[in-house]
UniProtKB/TrEMBL annotation:
Residue ranges annotated for the CBS domain, each copy included: 9-65, 83-138
Gene3D superfamilies: CBS-domain (3.10.580.10)
Name under which the protein is recorded: Cbs domain containing protein
SUPFAM superfamilies in UniProt: CBS-domain pair
UniProt keyword Aminoacyl-tRNA synthetase, yes or no: no
Keyword entries, A-Z: CBS domain
Organism of origin: Shewanella decolorationis S12
Amino acid sequence: MPIIIADIMRTRVVTVEMDDRLTVAKEIFEQANFHHLLVVDEYKLEGVLSERDLLRAISPNLGSSAETSKDLETLQKRVHQVMTRNPVTVAPHVSLDAATHTLLEHNIGCLPVLDNGDLVGIVTWKDLLRAYCEHNEVNESEC
């Protein structure tokens, strides 16, 4: 039986608002074990903010002895200024293979899962790889 996204997606999704400051996203990434935040406006998906996007937008001097007030100002940017707009999404009924091809085709790290326009989950490249290994009974040490 083919694996579908609904079988492997994470339904506990952490979101931020478009006008949240990057300080909020930075704090979430520092405390969490994931690398993508979904950006919403009135519960509607508007974008994706990756940890990599955040790191590109803020000063590399933050937290160092070279930090200046100008470096701290980079944290005051709004999420919508840095996020990826119109993210590629997937439906819950899509197959593991199709989702994997979509990730590779667009060179992205996650797919928000939408069901009739409603945000219901997220799936990352790690989720897809884990499902592939489990489905093919590959030992974790081999994956």
